[in-house]
Amino acid sequence: MQEFRIRIRSFDEVKDFIRISTSQPFPVYIGNDRQMVNSTSYMGLMSLDHTGDLLVQTDCSDSEFLDFRNQAARFLAE
Question: CA neighbours within 13 Å on the CB side: how many for 48?
Fold first, then answer.
């Protein structure tokens, strides 16, 4: 499992992150201390607390992970 942290602050950012997640050939999960949801689900993402960082987790190759992380670079919380 590979992971990184992001921040999402608006509905438009939720839509953009879902667009990036659905283009991946592997499952992507996002969440916090209390829950993890499928990152392609509007309902799931909207149910999360967006006041802090969110954890993105996926199980893929190193090269796929780097490509995905680069696509999501504008959301990185680092």
Answer: 29
d(CA 50, CA 24): 23
Judging by beta carbons within 10 Å of its beta carbon (0-12, 13-18, 19+), is residue 39 exposed, middle or buried? buried
Pairing relationship of beta strands 2-6 and 36-38 according to DSSP bridges: unpaired
Q: Are 29 and 36 in contact (CB under 8 A)?
A: yes
Q: How far apart are the first and last CA of the chain?
A: 19
Q: What is the CA radius of gyration of the chain?
A: 11
- For 17-67, what is each residue's pLDDT tens digit? 999 999 999 999 999 988 999 999 999 999 999 999 999 999 999 999 999
CA angle 16–19–21, rounded 5-degree value: 110
